[in-house]
C-alpha cells in the first residue's frame, strides 16, 4: 500500500458540548466533515480515522462552518431546529454516500428499519450493507443515522451509545409537533 500523502488543506477540529455529552467536530474550508460523540478513549482513534479518510492534517481550531454548526446544534437540542443547512463534506464509497443521502431524507421524528432503507435504495437484500454504511457515517445527527432501527423496533447499535440514540429519538418525538 502506498504511503498516505497529506493534502495541503487542514481540517480544523473542535469540541462542542451538548446535553448528551461532548461532540468532536471537524471542518474543511468547504464544510463539515466530522461530527461524532467523543470521549477521552475515543478521540485519538476518531482523529486518526479522519486524517486517513481525508488524507489531511488536523489542527485544533474553529472556522465559520464550526461556528454555524454549534449554533444549529444548540437550536436542535432546544427543539427549535429540525433540519440542518450546513455544507457537508463526505468521503465514502458510492454505496455509503447513497445510504447517507437516504438517511438525510428520513423526516425528523420518524424512524425507518434497515430493510426499509435497503428497499428504498432498490437493493432489498442489502440490509447488512446498509447497516455497515450507517455505522460508518461520520456525521452524527446531521446525517441522522439514529433514525434507523431494527426490524422488530429495537434500538440497535449506535456509535455514541444506544442510550444517546434513545435520547435523540425522544427529543425528536417530543418536539415533532412544535414549530
Strand and helix map with partners:
Blueprint: E1 7-16, E2 23-27, E3 32-37, H1 43-54, E4 56-60, H2 64-77, H3 94-104, E5 112-113, H4 114-120, H5 127-135, E6 148-149, H6 162-175
Parallel strand pairs: 1-4, 5-6
Antiparallel strand pairs: 1-2, 2-3
Helix pairs in contact: 3-5, 4-5
Distinctive features:
4-stranded mixed β-sheet; Arc Repressor Mutant, subunit A; alpha/beta; 2 domains; 6 strands
Structure description:
- This protein is of the alpha/beta class.
- It has two domains: 7-77, no CATH class; 94-175, Orthogonal Bundle (Arc Repressor Mutant, subunit A), CATH 1.10.10.
- 37% of the residues lie in helices and 17% in strands.
- It has helices at 43-54, 64-77, 94-104, 114-120, 127-135, 162-175; strands at residues 7-16, 23-27, 32-37, 56-60, 112-113, 148-149.
- The strands form two sheets. It has a four-stranded mixed beta sheet, with helices on both faces. The protein has a two-stranded parallel ribbon with strand order 5-6.
- α3 (94-104) crosses α5 and α4 packs across α5.
- The model is unreliable at 1-8 (pLDDT under 50).
The main sheet comes to:
4 strands, mixed
What's the order of the H and E elements? EEEHEHHEHHEH
Helix percent reads 25-40%
Q: Class of the largest domain in CATH?
A: Mainly Alpha
CATH architecture of the largest domain: Orthogonal Bundle
Q: What would you give as the CATH superfamily of the largest domain?
A: Winged helix-like DNA-binding domain superfamily/Winged helix DNA-binding domain
Q: What radius of gyration results from the CA coordinates?
A: 16 Å
| Secondary-structure content class | alpha/beta
The coarse silhouette is globular
Taken as a percent bin, the fraction of beta residues is 15-25%
Amino acid at each position: 500500500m502506498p504511503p498516505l500523502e497529506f493534502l495541503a488543506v487542514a481540517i480544523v477540529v473542535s469540541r462542542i458540548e451538548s446535553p448528551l455529552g461532548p461532540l468532536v467536530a471537524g471542518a474543511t474550508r468547504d464544510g463539515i466533515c466530522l461530527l461524532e460523540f467523543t470521549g477521552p478513549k475515543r478521540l485519538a482513534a476518531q482523529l486518526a480515522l479522519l486524517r486517513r479518510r481525508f488524507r489531511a492534517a488536523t489542527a485544533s481550531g474553529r472556522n465559520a462552518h464550526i461556528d454555524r454548526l454549534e449554533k444549529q446544534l444548540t437550536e436542535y437540542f432546544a427543539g427549535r431546529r429540525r433540519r440542518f443547512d450546513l455544507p457537508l463534506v463526505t468521503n465514502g464509497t458510492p454505496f455509503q454516500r447513497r445510504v447517507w443521502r437516504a438517511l438525510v431524507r428520513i423526516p425528523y421524528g420518524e424512524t425507518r428499519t434497515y430493510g426499509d432503507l435497503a428497499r428504498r435504495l432498490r437493493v432489498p437484500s442489502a440490509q447488512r450493507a446498509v447497516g455497515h454504511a450507517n455505522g460508518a457515517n461520520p456525521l452524527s445527527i446531521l446525517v441522522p443515522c439514529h433514525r434507523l432501527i431494527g426490524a422488530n423496533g429495537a434500538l440497535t447499535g449506535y456509535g455514541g451509545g444506544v442510550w444517546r440514540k434513545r435520547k435523540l429519538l425522544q427529543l425528536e418525538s417530543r418536539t415533532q409537533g412544535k414549530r
